[in-house]
Amino acid sequence: MNHLLEPNGQARATLILDYGDVSTTLRQKLEARSWCVHIAPNLKEFKKLFKQQRFEVVIIYFDQEQIPDASELETLSSLNIITKWIAIVPSEEWLETHPSILFSHLFYDYHRQPLRYDYLLATIGHAFGMAQLQSQKLEHYKVQNNRDDLIGHSKETEKLRNRISVVARGKESVLITGDCGTGKSFFGRLLHKNSQFATGPFKTISCGAASESLLHSELFGHEQGSLYPNCEAKIGKITQCHQGSLLLTDIEDLPLSVQSSLTQYLEQQIFYPIGSDKASSSSCRIIATSSSDLRQLVQKNLFSEALYNALSTTTIEAPRLSERHQDIKPLAQYFLDHFCPKNEAKAFTQCAFGAMQQYHWPGNVRELMNRIRRAIILANDDIINESHLELPNDNHLHTLTLKDAKDRVEKDIVVRTIAQAGYNHSQAAKDLGISRTSLYRLISKHEIML
Known about the structure:
Elements: E1 12-17, H1 24-31, E2 35-40, H2 43-52, E3 57-61, H3 70-77, E4 84-89, H4 92-96, E5 107-112, H5 117-138, H6 155-167, E6 174-177, H7 184-193, E7 202-206, H8 212-220, H9 237-240, E8 244-249, H10 256-268, E9 270-271, E10 280-281, E11 284-290, H11 294-299, H12 305-311, E12 315-317, H13 328-339, E13 347-348, H14 350-358, H15 364-378, E14 383-384, H16 386-389, H17 394-397, H18 402-420, H19 425-432, H20 436-445
Parallel strand pairs: 1-2, 1-3, 3-4, 4-5, 6-11, 6-12, 7-8, 8-11, 13-14
Antiparallel strand pairs: 9-10
GO biological process, one term: regulation of DNA-templated transcription
GO molecular function: ATP binding; sequence-specific DNA binding
Pfam families: AAA_lid_14, HTH_8, Sigma54_activat, VpsR
């Protein structure tokens, strides 16, 4: 099975959420096959790493004490629809009491402990291959960030449109808050386009994607030789954005030491590049975004109160997609039109629109966009129906008995395994760890059509 895991010219990275430090063996086996393995001991670190790097495969170890919320993982998965998620559960008995974990439509597959590493490595290899294939297809369906206005006319959208119009007239810094996937970065760009700085430069820094020293350098620059011997001098983005705007995403991830320097700039319009004792100045509008409650972080001493006060004089709140139900249809049509080349035009069925209206969209606009991108790939003809969107039926799930839930999981795994085995029943039974007779019994039990 090693051929499934051989390098294809690029580094293969996997991220493992492991609360109990039990993934050592898996890490060794993956690294022996040239994988780059990242381990996160908690959900906070997992989120940070997931946002910083692209991972084709992520693996979640579930245990009795630490059980991350499936909806929170779903929201995180909307950041990258290519990633394949694999769950490792303690036992079949554990799964019976946590059926919603696998009904999130998040996991590509799951494995029970004690692990059969040959099966698990094969699954990881298959998952990586599927991610690569979908990634290649999605290259043809890139969204164009060329719209200059908000899409939709719901009450919340009109309120947001008016707020952006008013805030755009000023010069002060702006804090844009809201859940992940609500479009905060887009609103920041829209704010710049409608401001007096529109003809000036616009740049972005992700505060959670670099080290403390690099972030300080990205913001304020550094002198020659100040970071390491013979390094060249660098002009920071605050200087580059003179008479323009600088968007700082995930401001809650900015290190505290850099927060104090940014506060000084916001209050006095001066800053010090690394290695310099001479103050520099620039007229740059700071636009910051955050998915966290910064007031709570201030109370926990995890975020500077001075910086919060400097940023929050002017705020914009991005509404959830669930608060903009009237906008779902025009947004969906917009993404469909922009992802599909003109010679590959597709259309939604009314059932697809109905399903999108009923779904609660935990990943907000980003999830809507990504599910439509995936639906375009899954739809073989010019019609996109409800099944292509792969939306979880959450309301129905809550009415299931444990037996019904287990049967649904069992059927889903059997169908998927048979498909992955190329409809070879002997191989599918081997992959499931059961006999062919048991496999045929399951096919009959669940009335699986092959």
